[in-house]
Design brief:
mainly alpha, 2 helices, 60% helix
Length: 78
Amino acid sequence: MIEEKFARLRTHRNNIDRYRRLLKTELTELERRFIERRLSEEQTAMDELAASTFPVRFNQPMLAGASMAPPAGEACHV
């Protein structure tokens, strides 16, 4: 199951890379709009799949002053 999700994530990533490369080429306005729409759809699909595969986001920066310690009165169980 997880291997299938990784394969789907790779496919989305590869499609996104391809669309970004295409946007660097000379395109008609219609082609550009189509590719931008597909790029957006692929990014959304990848984000949703990643969120369902990895519910915790490790790449978000911590807020300034945020602490990793549990709230006061709560024990930390490891």
